[in-house]
């Protein structure tokens, strides 16, 4: 993968993120099998939650995308439950020294199974391996059945529930009943609905529908599509507050002292947009809320894990103060998701601004952290809830690369192996007039390359590589409209009707030669 625009904030970012991710590789051997994992930024272990997001970045340079997913499948319990993580390294030095093989599931988490399916989806897209997915479909069915037939499921509301955690994190509020962080579910658990779980399962159900359709199982595909639409409708009914998604909709009545619960904006909000549960108006409302808090908060960035935070130590760990980690820390993970959402929902220049701010943040020292304090201080070992806070955070950096590759450069794989793609070119929002972009999957040797230029009221786009069907969106210069277009080397399927007020030129083509081209002639509106 590379990007060439003459702008270092875009051209250098892919290599910088690859450098971070390569330092996060965790090669393990379990039961005689080699497993290529990518470690969590705060622990030397392979968490499916981190991995399923980080794979969006390392798919562009890594060949082994299946061994970790396969290992989570192989260790699935009989009831369908998936482990959170595995490791062969001691985790809590110096008291733990054993290099045993260790598997953990944190009971309060309801998001593990959908992340397992999402990781498999991206691995399939990049490798194109149908047998890999066909063999795992029973595992996916069992994983979703586990969620939908257990204490995590509300059949009446058709929603996933969980204990009162901070968004998707792995410890629960206990009102002081626990001496430390509470990872278990018991008779005192405060239950409720967290919006991010439900958008995650909407996406997983949608993926299942796609796979069954692809394999010719129409009835199963329709069934999962129906489930996806139902959970989406339900979460938008119960979790949407008119401006954004309420952090936690309570089933068990409880009040957390000193907390402005009604106004808490939590990290899954931009993720919800990117998973497809919002409409254009809802997405815009969430994005404007982040812009508002950027202006009002005084924080160096608006990428809050949650805002406002909970009182210091109220979850049982004295280091979990307001502004630290998932209790109000500033997370590049959130910034990347927000940038992607902004770029795709009419806030293109805001999305570009986020990418530029992130590049400035990491370029001085070549370091990136899972979280920062709102005043810009890093999450060093002495302030972090984890003693292993590395400066090579692959979770957040891969989210930023995701925003750059799919949001700004605009290459989205609609099926697999980059054979059917959408190219949504938004370089106009970054004042870039020439760009060469190459996106590839080393796991299958598929690629797409395009050359984009704007000069003298003419936009040129040349495309080569693996794509056969291509949906194209091009952000037009301000106060310009399309007067004509031509498509040498392509079969035109459709061209959207030109309206002077529209921001984008849109068309759909089939590449009929090794290189397809589009020329768009413009005039003033």
Q: Report strand %.
A: 15-25%
Number of domains: 2
CATH level-3 fold name of the largest domain: Glycosyltransferase
Number of helical elements: 13
- From the N-terminal CA to the C-terminal CA, the straight-line distance is 36 Å
Helix content bin:
25-40%
Return the average pLDDT rounded to an integer: 96
- CATH top level label of the largest domain: Mainly Alpha
Q: What is the number of strand segments?
A: 23
Report what the structure shows.
By secondary structure, the chain is an alpha+beta fold. The chain has two domains: 2-408, Alpha/alpha barrel (Glycosyltransferase), CATH 1.50.10.10; 420-524, Maltose phosphorylase, domain 3 (Sandwich). It is 34% helix and 21% strand. It is built from 13 helices and 23 strands. It has helices spanning 8-11, 13-22, 48-58, 67-74, 112-127, 130-148, 195-214, 218-238, 268-275, 280-297, 332-344, 348-363, 394-408; strands at residues 2-4, 25-30, 33-38, 46-47, 85-87, 102-104, 153-154, 159-160, 162-163, 191-193, 249-250, 265-266, 306-307, 411-413, 420-425, 434-441, 446-455, 458-465, 469-475, 480-486, 490-495, 504-511, 515-524. Strands 1-16-17-18-23-20 form a six-stranded antiparallel beta sheet, with no helix packed on it. Helix 7 runs parallel beside helix 9 (268-275) and helix 9 (268-275) runs parallel beside helix 11 (332-344). It is globular and about 70 Å long. The model has no long low-confidence stretch (mean pLDDT 96).
What descriptive keywords fit this protein?
525 residues, alpha+beta, Maltose phosphorylase, domain 3, 2 domains, five-stranded mixed β-sheet, 21% strand
